[in-house]
């Protein structure tokens, strides 16, 4: 693969700015998760929200080691890349070209400003059937982003459509619930955003069940129910890989 691919620093969509964008950034500001450029450069080692970032550091390290073993050029897409820290980490792989996609212009603009690498680009757009008409990817990553899509089946079908033969979809840092847990979690979610003064955000956060992967060729690469993980309570999230 020719690494001379033009690095489009920032692609703009002509679509109308989605309502989700304004709600999401308001939540981030309320949670004090809008980072300075210096803080962003230090992620996932930045101390604020240390438990969260400890978990995300572990999952990032596992994913990086897994991709490194591929030992070939990888065209990687991260869907819902936010401020781009994970895309930037993956761009450190020896042979790759990484695209980070998000509907949050503020974070995409910051990612473009902070992370300047010839094999990395950031795209401001929603993820749907029309987002990538010609591009194809070897790896598609959903890191803490699948919960913002109403249908797991629909979004995975969209992702599979733009995978190269033998490509993989990876889901990390994402909560899953059984039906009873999902109902309770949805109630807590609505209460959380209502207390924040941003109740509309609950309409954009979805509580998925692991059974929604049935019908896909998937593997569980990390199971939080494992004995050691339950003993030490290190990581509450599954790592799911789906092969095309």
TrEMBL record:
GO terms for biological process: methylation. GO terms for molecular function: methyltransferase activity. Keywords: Methyltransferase, Transferase. Gene3D superfamilies: Vaccinia Virus protein VP39. It comes from the Bacteria. InterPro entries: Methyltransf_25, SAM-dependent_MTases_sf. The keyword Cell cycle does not apply. Residues 76-167 form the Methyltransferase domain. This is Class I SAM-dependent methyltransferase.
């Amino acid at each position: 693969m020719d690494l001379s691919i033009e690095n489009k620093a920032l692609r703009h969509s002509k679509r109308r700015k989605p309502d989700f964008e304004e709600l999401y950034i308001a939540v981030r500001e309320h949670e004090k998760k809008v980072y300075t450029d210096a803080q962003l450069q230090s992620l996932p080692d930045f101390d604020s929200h240390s438990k969260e970032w400890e978990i995300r550091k572990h999952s990032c390290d596992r994913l990086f080691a897994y991709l490194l073993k591929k030992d070939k050029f990888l065209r990687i897409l991260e869907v819902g890349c936010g401020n781009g820290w994970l895309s930037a980490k993956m761009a450190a792989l020896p042979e790759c070209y990484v695209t980070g996609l998000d509907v949050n212009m503020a974070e995409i603009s910051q990612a473009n400003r902070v992370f300047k690498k010839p094999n990395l680009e950031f795209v401001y757009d929603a993820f749907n059937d029309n987002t990538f008409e010609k591009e194809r990817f070897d790896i598609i990553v959903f890191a803490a982003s699948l919960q913002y899509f109403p249908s797991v089946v629909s979004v995975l079908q969209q992702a599979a459509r733009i995978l190269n033969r033998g490509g993989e979809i990876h889901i990390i840092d994402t909560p899953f619930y059984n039906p009873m847990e999902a109902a309770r979690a949805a109630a807590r979610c609505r209460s959380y955003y209502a207390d924040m003064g941003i109740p509309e955000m609950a309409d954009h956060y979805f509580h998925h069940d692991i059974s929604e992967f049935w019908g896909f060729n998937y593997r569980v690469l990390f199971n939080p129910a494992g004995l050691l993980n339950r003993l030490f309570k290190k990581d509450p999230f599954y790592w799911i890989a789906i092969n095309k």
